[in-house]
Hints:
The protein is α/β, with parallel strands linked by helices. The chain folds into 2 domains: 9-72; 83-280, Rossmann fold (3-Layer(aba) Sandwich). The chain is 40% helix and 18% strand. The strands form 2 sheets. Strands 5-4-3-6-7-9-8 form a 7-stranded mixed sheet, with helices on both faces. A two-stranded antiparallel sheet has the order 1-2. β3 (120-124), α7 (130-138) and β4 form a beta-alpha-beta unit. α1 packs across α2 (28-40). The longest helix has 15 residues, at 57-71. The mean pLDDT is 96.
Amino acid sequence: MSIVNQKTISAVLCNAECFLKESQVPDAKVDAELILAHFLHCKRTELYLAKDEEIADDCLKKIESALQKRSIRYPLQYIFQEIDFLNSKLYVDENTLIARPETEYLCDLIIKENMGKALDILDIGTGSGAIAISLKKGLRNSCVDAVDISDNALGIAVNNAVSNSVIVNFFASDLFENINKKYDLIVSNPPYIAESDYESLEAEIFFEPKIALVADQDGLQCIFKILESAPNYMKKDACLYIEFGYQQAELIVEFAKKYKYKSIKIIKDLSGFDRFIKLEV
Length: 281
């Protein structure tokens, strides 16, 4: 795609939208605006106020490259290499899952429930560090550990913590494998998509690390492992929060009843779907 002969913001925006529509990208107009605004370092509304201004050639090349990537459904978050998550700005790439609004909601909920407390917190499967960093920012007096099986993800999480000026202890562990202490609060957004459902997901998903999305046992393997082992790593009156797929609540609750949890609560997301489980020991 070349739009170098039409350099005004309005012309480039129009061509960008048409190009993305032809590529069957959902929300083509919004995505075109977001791409231009990102590389022009402005707000989307400001594009229309400056519609007759010309875009510099070097910036135009970046926009064209981004549009080409988006046309194959490459996620905008990876194009921009950043996400805004609750109270943090985080670097992301194909080594890390793109944290969703549901997970953001869970972090906000945990922070509000524990405001002012000094807790020992563990984040399992930290990815970009989104949960761990947000909880550390929101619960400043707490000590936060975070683990992941991916060394590449851990490297990104470490850098994200530094850029957000928080101290989180990141280390490699397959779930609880390398954990040797007990916590007041454990949280996880584990892989919970069934292999049979994976191929039917939106195209953007296939650029994200499959290991962070898909689990055996119809998507429940990691969740079951966490539920089974977590009580051994929880202090008295500690809480465990797990995010899951909206149709998995009943099976998860039944499984959890086998273990030493004194309370089990399902929490809905902002769309009204069963999305999280909170358990206490």
